[in-house]
Amino acid sequence: MNRVIFAAFAVLYLTGCATAIKGRSQTIPVASEPDGADIIVNDSNVGVTPAEVELRRKRDHQIIIKKQGYKPVTIPVLKSVGGAVWGNILAGGFIGWGVDASTGAQYNLKPETISVTLKRLEEGEVAADGDAETASGIRKLRELDQALEDKLISKEEYGKARERVIKEFFPEMLEEEES
User: Fold this and answer.
1) What pTM does this model have?
2) Greater confidence, 11 or 43?
3) Shared domain check, 77 and 44
4) What is the mean pLDDT of the chain?
5) How many domains is the chain built from?
6) Same domain for 168 and 119?
7) Could you give the CA distance from residue 10 to residue 92 in angstroms, rounded to a whole number?
8) How far apart are CA 139 and CA 148, in angstroms?
């Protein structure tokens, strides 16, 4: 029995607690009224509503929900550090945290579910491909991720720059975290 407990602890310690428990991706349910709308994730059509989409925790995402005759809706899905990180550092040390950071398992994606009501296009109105501002914000966040990965900026610079981009493009996400 002690060997089983030791083996389980070793796996969590060496692989990262969040990696072992939460995994590298998160399932997000996506629904629309009316049903049958296309779900576009990061420029790739992944299905129609209602559906569940599997998203990598390590990245920010853009989801566009669109249907013929309706205005498309663009939703940012942003990563944020999950509360389990601090417990992982305490229980598993920096090795486990490092694994979780590299796999993305330390992050949670928000919103956790997506449900939208599509609005009909007015007569003569043409549907846009998506929200250019949301796309620009997601692009800036991805550029920051790449700069951090390439060691062009420090973690502190990354955190401050990420917060500025979120305040500029996605202030509603900050309001959700505060409440």
Assistant:
1) 0.73
2) 43
3) yes
4) 80
5) 2
6) no
7) 9
8) 14
